Amino acid sequence: MYAVTAATGQLGRLVVAELLESGVPAGRIVAAVRDPAKAADLAAKGVEVREADYDRPETLRTAFEGVRRVLLISSSAVGVRVPQHQAAIDAAKAAGVELLAYTSILHADTTPAQLAEEHKATEAAIGGSGLPAAILRNGWYTENHLMALKPVLEHGAMVGAAGEGRFSSATRADYAAAAAKVLTADDQAGKVYELAGDDGYTYAEFAAELSRRAGKEIAYRDLSEADYKEVLVSAGLPEGFAAILADADEAARGGALHDSSRTLSRLIGRPTTPMPQTVEAAVKAAG
């Protein structure tokens, strides 16, 4: 049995789809989710849906019963993720799983990004647990740059604080394919994968691609970390989360989100999705 936590999330659903496409029978996949009602479509496909709330350890223990391999998708609750992940690690150990795979962040052990702190702590907890584990250090999602696409297109400008720093991003589908590969492959215990897109780009190059696809000029305005944080706060983001995102851009300015190893494309057996392709699809969807 394979369990995927956060299986109704944006990444989790794609991992389940990849497992099904790879030939894993639906009945051997556990969709471990906080709200089973949101997984009705997965249940309809024959996937076993089990309640698994990071904040309720007893549900995790039940969710992992009889499971051989678990994909622990990192929680989205920035700031409280370490105890949530610890609960999942403890449940996996109690279930005697033979492999725990965890979605971390690119270069978690060396990056200066604040966003990595909880990932570092989780990796340490996994190491201390004695569980056979594989670490998937995911780079930036290309989709992250498109979350505010509509206002960017309306105002003809995008802002950030990464300067000439390069983003080696890939799509969620690319990272999901990697997770499914690792979850189903042999001899994965002890492996650490630095996963990133094949080709890097700057914010200015991203804005230029947006301009081409939208048929209008989209300028990139580079800000200081502090000023970018204020822009994010004014857009409605909580101050703490805005600070973390602005810090991530500052880390990217220094190269923290760039990786040229092409480990991801080798793992999934195909090139990663080119940034222009993702931008084109998003602009079309935005109308």
Write up this protein.
There is one protein chain. This protein has a domain at 2-138 and 171-195: Rossmann fold (3-Layer(aba) Sandwich). The mean pLDDT is 96. The protein is built from 12 helices and 9 strands. The strands form 2 sheets. It has a 7-stranded parallel beta sheet, with helices on both faces. Strands 7-9 form a two-stranded parallel sheet. α1 (10-21) crosses α7 and α9 packs antiparallel against α10 (239-253). α2 links the parallel β2 (29-33) and β3 (48-51). The chain is an alpha/beta fold and 287 residues long. It has helices at 10-21, 40-44, 57-63, 81-95, 117-129, 149-155, 172-184, 203-214, 225-234, 239-253, 263-268, 275-285, and strands at residues 2-5, 29-33, 48-51, 69-72, 99-105, 133-138, 157-160, 192-195, 219-222. This is SDR family oxidoreductase. Residues 7-185 form the NAD(P)-binding domain. Pfam families: NAD_binding_10.
How would you sum up this structure in a few lines?
By secondary structure, the chain is of the alpha/beta class. It has helices spanning 10-21, 40-44, 57-63, 81-95, 117-129, 149-155, 172-184, 203-214, 225-234, 239-253, 263-268, 275-285, and strands at 2-5, 29-33, 48-51, 69-72, 99-105, 133-138, 157-160, 192-195, 219-222. It has a seven-stranded parallel β-sheet with strand order 3-2-1-4-5-6-8, sandwiched between helices.
